[in-house]
Structures are given as C-alpha cells and as structure tokens.
Specification:
This protein has 3 domains: about 5-215; about 225-360, GAF domain (Beta-Lactamase, 2-Layer Sandwich); about 455-660, Histidine kinase-like ATPase, C-terminal domain (Heat Shock Protein 90), CATH 3.30.565. The protein is about 60% helix and about 10% strand. The protein has helices spanning about 5-30, 35-60, 65-90, 95-115, 125-155, 160-190, 190-205, 205-215, 215-240, 245-260, 280-290, 335-410, 415-445, 460-475, 495-510, 545, 570-580, 620-630, and strands spanning about 265-270, 275-280, 300-305, 310-315, 320-325, 455-460, 480, 490-495, 520-525, 530-535, 585-590, 595-600. The strands form 3 sheets. A 5-stranded antiparallel sheet has the order 2-1-5-4-3, sandwiched between helices. The protein has a 5-stranded mixed sheet with strand order 7-9-10-12-11. Helix 3 (about 65-90) runs parallel beside helix 5. The longest helix is centred in the middle third of the chain and has 74 residues, at about 335-410.
C-alpha cells in the first residue's frame, strides 16, 4: 500500500471518529434539549463534518464549492466551544462581543476574497495568506482559552466530573496543536510522511474527546475507585456523625453527587421538606419533587421537559418515604444504570443515619423541654416557699395574739352573748391557723424538709386520741362513732403525731360530710406484714368521676357548694404524710351509700400485753374511749383481737360523703 493510500485511509478513520463523536453529542442534545449541551454538540458536530469533508476530498479531490462551507464549519467548532465555556464560566459582555467580531470578521473576509487553493499553495496571494493566518490565530485563541479555563475550572469539581472536563480540554488542545501543524506543513509543502504523522496525532485526539463526553464503563469504574474508598469512609461517617439532619443530609448529598459524577441533587424527607439541595434553587427543587417521574419504580429516569437523566432512590425513614435525587448535567451528560446501582447501598445507610439523627434531635428537644419544665417548676416551688414563709410570718403572729387574747377574755366574767362571740373568734382563729399549718406542711413535704420519726405506734392508742378529739363534733352533729375493739398489741411503723393528724382528718371529714344523725365506723385489719385502718361512713358517697381528683390540693369538688367549711388541703396533706411514712392511702365510694377511706402502713413488732393490778390483761384503750364517749356504739366487741381481711359488709364500704371529703375541718 502506497503512502498516499495509507494517508487517505487514516484520514477517513479520523473523519469517522470525529463524526461519531459529533453524532453522539447531537443525539444527547436532541434528547435533553439543554442549551449548554447544544453548544457542545455544535462544537463536536462541526469538527466531525470538517473531518468527514477532509476525508472525502482525499478521495475525490479538491472541491472549491465546498471550501466556503468547510471554513464556516471549522470556525463554528471554535464558536461552539467558546459558547460552551461561556455557559460554564460566564464571559464578560465585551469579551463575547470581541470574540464574535474576531470569529466572524476573518471568516467573512476570506469568503469574499476567496479561499486559498489547497492543491497549489503557491497560488495563494499575500492577502489571502494573511487572512488565513489571522483566521487560524483566531481559531486557536477561541479554542485554547476555553480549553485552558475549563481545565483550571475542573480542579474544583468532583473526581469523575474533573476527569471528564479535563479530557474534553485535552482533546481540544490536541486538535488545536494538530491543526496548526497540519496548516504549517501544508503551507511548507512537506512530504506525505509528515502528513501521516499529523493524521496519527489527530487520531490520538479522538479518545480524550470521547472519554470526556461518554466514557466507557470500565473507565468510569476506574475513576470511581478513589471515590469508593472515600464512600466507605463517608458511610462510616454517616453512621457515626450526629449533627442536625440538615447538616447530615447536606454531607450525604455531596457524597452521592461525587459518586456518580452528577451535577446537582436534593434530599427530601417523607413530608416533602427539603433537607438539602446542591446546584438547585429551592423553587427548582420543589418543582422536581412534584414531578410524576419520582413515583416510578425505576431508579434511573428522565425528568422534566428537558429529559435530564436523574438517579432516584427512596429513603425509607421512620416517618415514611423520602427521596434522594441526583441529576446529571452538562459536565456529566449521562449517568448509566450501573452508577445508579452504586447509590442503592449508600441510600440505605443514609436512611438509617437520618433516622438516628432524628431520634437524637427528638431526645435533645425532649431533654430541653424537660429542663425548661424543671426550671419553671423549681422557680415556682421557690416562689411558693417564699410566699408560704411570708404568709406564715404575717398570719401566724397576729393569729396567735388574737387566740391568746380571746382565751384571756374567756377567763373573765362574760354574759352569754359575749362568751358566744369570743368562742366564735377562737374557732375562726383555730381554723385559720390550722389552714396555715397545713399549707406549710405540704410545702415542707414537697421540698423534703419535713421531719418524721418512724417508731412503733399503737393503733388503738392513736384511734383513742382521735375519738377524744372528735367527740364534741360528733355530739354536736348527732353522729355515732363506733369502733370494734382493736387489739392493744397491734402496732405500725409511723410517726405518731402525723398518723394522728391523718386519722383525725379522715374521721373529721366523715363526721362533717355525713348525714345528720349518721354513723362513722373505725376499724383495723391486717394482712401479711401490713395493717390497714378503715374509716367508713354512711353518707351520700362520691361521684366516680371525682374520685381521681380527691387527693389534689385545694380540690373540694361538690363540697365547695355546701355550707361545710374546708379548704381542700386535708386529704392532699394526708396523702403526702402517709406516703412519706412509707404507706398508702385510698378510697372506695358508692354514690348514695357512703365512703370508706383507708390508710395502710407496715406492721411493727407487737408490744407485750399490759397487766392490770389484779393480774388480768389490760383492756383496749379504744374500747374504754368508746364506752366513755357520748353516743359511742361499741359494735362487734366479740371480734376483739381478731384479724380481718377487709371491711365488714360490702354495703357499708363506701367512701366519704361528697367530694368535700378532700378537705379538712
């Protein structure tokens, strides 16, 4: 095969290669319709046509009629690259105008004066030669500047995009060098060996252009190896890194775009909230989220009117299904299914990480709310304690004086009306002083400042004390208080003063909120190591919906509308005292039949039985008190010393009458 034939074949191969790249660019632009891709298609397609025409001329000879068209296509290849550069890195307006003048001016001049005779370089006139030199200089400048700027710009891109951009820049730089050398050789009239070498160099420029536009899978996989190593670290980072969701999503999206060489993307949660965007405005991101293509089962789709390739992965987060979307761009015009598959495992790790951070955020938010609530409660408690302290000082001092002077008045000769008024003052003062004391007791219990003395306490002695204290009220209201005999050996672990205070409150309430002429029964039962003291009345009972609020401070419920005095503190204080002594308190009530309150405490070791002077066992103090009390009815004396599992008679086991059971006398 002669040298001319080899040169012709090589020129046709170069032409076919450039034409193929041009067709790929045109196809991609036709599918996507993006202006930036159109510029790249113009640049590569024009080069392909110029190369094809050059190959045909080597076979059929020079065709002057086509020289003008080839010259225009040749300059369009430079203009397309310059426009592509402007779409990536914006040129100043004056530069764009100057470039248009420099590209169009020499081209128009040569078209007017005529193209140089390619077959006979000697026929070229000085004017034509100067015009050709200017044209070549403008073309080289229009190609060199974008190639250099795109190469520099690629340094800040992800690895895959950087490799593609630099391949395009290298391919165009190589073409520029080859074109210059071909024209120099042509003008010098060198032999075919130089032409063959230059054709081979031109062929070497094809792979970088092809790689920059549509790299094969094996090359993409090679480019991805460093990214995959970083991805492993990124996945590890996702699972351990715990900032807010927005920061985590931003980092996760950045790695996803780097992995497939995408241009932009977004991450949204199940509710459509944008957690992160890159390369997109918020309006563009929300528009993408509304596209029906995101609901398709495929991971690789084309979205929008422009047909942009996008990788879509569903994020299975606890609140539903979110989306990870990575879009291709002009720097990476295609993303294949293999690259889309790479993101599947990463998307799963991202879902787990987002859920974990969401849980951490909720825990932190809950902790902040709890701290704020605690601070508010502590501030309120301090304010309450300060208020009660002032109330104690401001009220107890004058109250004590009033009560003292009233007692002094009772020691003098008073007529009946005067004595009645003084006793009214005493009752009111005692009532108000008791209210202040109860408020202070509740405050001390809540602050943990109340002092309790746990010791074995005889139940029948405490009940006897309560009977003595409530006898006047029971007689005034014609209420019978009956107490089955309680063994003198029955003892509980408690603070005697506070236990007396609790039982006194329960019995007083049972008398106050009872029917006139009613009855109250106090008894004690044991079970295992516990003792339960019952206070039962035959009053009107409590509504079921009011039972749960019975032990709340200042809750008098239905009793607030009655004429019975009370503050709603008695039962709240009783509950706090019983629980402070390690016991429990409760109520059972049947509306219309009565109520039963009970206090349960731990049993203490039984005391040795007392012996009377004649050597017989001593009688129960409760039994004595019940016999001595006016109107007392000692019922069930034959059960003395027996242990009962609960209150006798289900019909009598109601609770205190009315909600007012929650208050004290």
């Amino acid at each position: 095969m002669t040298g001319d034939r080899v040169s012709q074949v090589l020129q046709l191969v170069v032409a076919a290669a450039f034409l193929l790249i041009g067709l790929l660019a045109l196809r991609d632009w036709w599918r996507g319709g993006e202006r930036r891709r159109g510029y790249l298609a113009l640049a590569l397609g024009s080069l392909g046509l110029v190369a094809l025409a050059g190959g045909l001329e080597s076979l059929v000879g020079n065709q002057p009629s086509l020289d003008g068209l080839l010259l225009v296509l040749f300059m369009l290849s430079a203009a397309g690259l310059l426009l592509y550069r402007d779409s990536v890195l914006r040129l100043p307006t004056w530069v764009r105008i100057l470039a248009a003048v420099l590209l169009a001016g020499p081209t128009a001049f040569i078209l007017v004066v005529g193209t140089p005779a390619s077959a006979n370089p000697a026929a070229t006139t000085p004017i034509r030669s100067a015009a050709l030199d200017l044209l070549l200089a403008v073309w080289c400048l229009a190609v060199a500047e974008p190639a250099y700027r795109l190469f520099r710009f690629s340094g800040g891109l992800p690895l895959i995009q950087r490799a593609r951009m630099r391949s395009l820049a290298a391919g165009y730089a190589g073409i520029m060098i080859v074109v210059v050398l071909i024209l120099v050789a042509f003008m010098a009239g060198d032999d075919n060996r130089v032409g063959l070498a230059l054709q081979a160099c031109a062929l070497l420029c094809v792979p970088p252009l092809y790689v920059g536009f549509a790299p094969p899978r094996w090359l993409r996989a090679r480019w991805r190896r460093p990214v995959e190593d970083r991805l492993r670290r990124a996945t590890h980072d996702l699972l351990l890194f715990s900032p807010d969701r927005a920061t985590l999503a931003s980092r996760g999206l950045d790695w996803a775009i780097r992995l497939v060489g995408g241009a932009s993307g977004l991450i949204a949660d199940a509710g459509g909230e944008l957690l992160a965007t890159q390369g997109l405005s918020e309006a563009e991101a929300r528009e993408i989220l509304e596209l029906p293509e995101l609901r398709l089962p495929e991971h690789l789709v084309r979205i929008g009117n422009g047909g942009r390739t996008a990788v879509v992965h569903r994020l299975a987060v606890s609140s539903g299904t979110g989306h990870l979307v990575v879009l291709a761009g002009s720097l990476s015009p295609t993303i294949d299914a293999e690259e889309a598959g790479w993101l599947a495992g990463y998307a799963a790790a991202l879902s787990i990480a987002l859920d974990r951070v969401r849980v951490s955020e909720l825990l932190a938010q809950t902790a902040d709310e709890l701290r704020a609530a605690r601070d508010m409660a502590e501030a309120a408690s301090r304010a309450k304690s300060e208020f009660l302290s002032r109330v104690s000082h401001e009220l107890r001092t004058p109250l004590t004086s009033m009560i003292g002077f009233a007692e002094l008045l009772l020691g003098h000769q008073l007529d009946a009306e005067q004595e009645r008024h003084v006793r009214t003052i005493l009752r009111a003062g005692d009532h108000l002083l008791g209210l202040v004391n109860e408020m202070l007791d509740i405050s001390r219990i809540e602050d943990g400042r109340i002092a309790l003395t746990s010791e074995p306490v005889s139940v029948d002695q405490v009940v006897a004390d309560v009977l003595d204290l409530t006898r006047p009220m029971a007689g005034e209201l014609n209420t019978r208080v009956r107490v089955p005999t309680i063994p003198g050996s029955l003892r509980v672990t408690a603070d005697r003063q506070r236990l007396t205070q609790v039982l006194l409150n329960l019995v007083t309430n049972a008398i106050k909120y009872n029917r006139r002429g009613g009855w109250v029964e106090i008894r004690a039962t044991t079970a295992g190591g516990r003792c339960r003291v019952w206070v039962q009345d035959g009053g009107v009972g409590i509504r079921p919906e009011e039972v749960e609020r019975l032990f709340a401070p200042f809750e008098r419920l239905s009793a607030a509308a009655s004429e019975v005095e009370g503050t709603g503190l008695g039962l709240a204080l009783s509950k706090s005292l019983v629980e402070a002594m390690g016991g429990t308190i409760g109520v059972e009530s049947v509306l219309g039949k009565g109520s039963t309150f009970w206090v349960e405490l731990a049993r203490a070791a039984p005391a040795k039985p007392a012996v009377s002077r004649d050597g017989e066992p001593g009688t129960s103090l409760v039994g004595s008190a019940a016999r001595e009390g006016a109107g007392a009815d000692r019922a069930g004396a034959d059960g003395a010393g027996a242990e009962h599992a609960g209150p006798a008679g289900a019909a009598q086991e109601g609770a205190m009458a009315g909600e007012g059971a929650a208050s004290t006398a």
